[in-house]
Amino acid sequence: ETGVTQSPTHLIKTRGQQVTLRCSSQSGHNTVSWYQQALGQGPQFIFQYYREEENGRGNFPPRFSGLQFPNYSSELNVNALELDDSALYLCASSSAGAGQGSTEAFFGQGTRLTVV
Amino acid sequence: DQQVKQNSPSLSVQEGRISILNCDYTNSMFDYFLWYKKYPAEGPTFLISISSIKDKNEDGRFTVFLNKSAKHLSLHIVPSQPGDSAVYFCAASAKGTGFQKLVFGTGTRLLVSP
């Protein structure tokens, strides 16, 4: 069974630039969620994708966007990077689907983004 | 508004003893609760979960207790081992929204000494 993998593991970007982070979900999972974890905090929900559509979003501006592909892998795109976007970005996969009840979510190792 | 709170930033326990990590929540719509363990430079690892229809769930050395009236849950680790040293996050989700949003606490750093 393949776990959740993310790439790259580390990234340094300049303020104003755009970044794309990638995630391969765990085998058998159809739902991908993205979280942002700032230093000393718990992960914060960005959004969730199911069947290639965003079906839930947290308190993040529209410059945070995503995609889910037919193989359930996913991308997180952040435009117009700000210094406060520096954080660990975590991808989680599950079989939660849409309104199918709660279930365990399994996380990747994360991408450490630094904006300078 | 912090809907999930872990009021103890750190906990030190001796090997072989019990570790008890606590978590409080404020949102009465939460119906599913999870505990994750996180090592440095790794993503959170799922440990154990509990549905709001239960008050206890056990998996090996890990037991989670849920007290709905107090909006409180706890994770018991018995016996504690040095490899359990990590940051532990409590998380909760609410059904009926059409998607699963996990709301996390700020974590408790557990140190198990030999």
Query: Based on CA inertia axes, which overall geometry of chain A fits?
Result: globular
Radius of gyration of chain A: 13 Å
What's the helix count of chain B?
A: 0
Rg of chain B, rounded, reads 14 Å
Q: Return the structural class of chain B.
A: mainly beta
Beta-strand residue fraction of chain B: over 45%
Per DSSP, what share of the residues of chain A sits in E-state strands of 2 or more residues? over 45%
Structural class of chain A: mainly beta
Q: How far apart, in Å, are the first and last alpha carbons of chain A?
A: 38 Å
- Shape of chain B, please? globular
Low-pLDDT residue intervals, each spanning 5 or more residues of chain B: none
- Most extensive contact: A-B, 32 and 29 residues
Folded structure, characterized:
The complex is a heterodimer of chains A (116) and B (114). Chain A is an all-beta fold and 116 residues long. Chain A is 0% helix and 49% strand. In chain A, strand 7 (64-68) and strand 8 (74-78) form a beta hairpin. Chain B has 114 residues and is mainly beta. Chain B contains no helices and eleven strands. Chain B has strands at 4-5, 10-14, 19-25, 30-38, 45-51, 56-59, 62-67, 72-77, 86-94, 103-104, 108-113. In chain B, strands 2, 4, 5, 9, 10 and 11 form a six-stranded mixed sheet that branches. Chain A binds chain B through residues 4, 6, 31, 33, 35, 40-45, 48, 50, 55-56, 58, 90, 92, 94, 96, 98-99, 101-110, and chain B through 4, 31-32, 34, 36, 41-46, 49, 51, 89, 91, 93, 95-107.
